[in-house]
Fold:
Amino acid sequence: MRWRDGRRSDNVEDRRGSRIGLGGSGMRLGGGGILLLLLGAWLLGVNPLTVLSVLAGGGGETLQLPDASQQPPARGGAPTDAGADFVSVVLADTEDTWTELFGQSGARYAPPKLVLFTQFVRSGCGTAQAAMGPFYCPLDQTVYIDLDFYRELRERFGAPGDFAQAYVIAHEVGHHVQALLGTSEQVRAAQERAGEAQANALSVRLELQADCYAGVWAHHANRARQVLEAGDVEEGLAAAAAIGDDRLQQQSQGQVVPEAFTHGSSKQRVEWFGRGMETGSLEHCDTFRS
Structure:
């Protein structure tokens, strides 16, 4: 992927090494913490409603975090290392792409912030662990990522390459686009009225649309700035396949439970990411009518 000459975003904050005040040896999960557990369950192949059930029956579960005094001092500010530099360029490219696409319809694109963290982070949605994977918090309109996830993507999920890493960021930015368009709120309202199976199905459609939006970004970024090199498309598709619910469930549970899907199968994720890349059209990303 050709990225080194790209613009750097001003919306990246480096919190790696930041301390998190815990107020004791553990932290009781509030609504925000539970939300992040549900958002992060896809990485572990766990049904988020199962997590919610466990928490509800546990009388107030406690999440044990490392002693804050053992954490390195906060760095803060803009990142300077190569990995963070890459993230900054990709984020800037999504800003340029979505600003143009929103502008075509007379709308203004308000870009998200992106926070780099290590192990744990406090977000507008609560405190999260790196094990949950990258996530987008709609309450503070921020993408959060521990760069160690890229090692997991490469070694655990078998999806190496810089474009695979860019896909991850573009997917989370896709959730930001959904928030700006009002799609996320509509889905959450529908899920509150739905049963478990229907709520899961809505979650799948939301995630597949974010995959499609990631493809839309890749389509326009390459057309405008020729960012793709040989093999990049295959890297992106491999990353989409690697985090399909069926593959994650097989790894973590030894079996596939389609009714518990929350993000879509590997085949579905590849299909929708590819559709966005091929068409470059938001209209072709309507997963809720397909």
The CA atoms of residues 153 and 159 lie 6 Å apart.
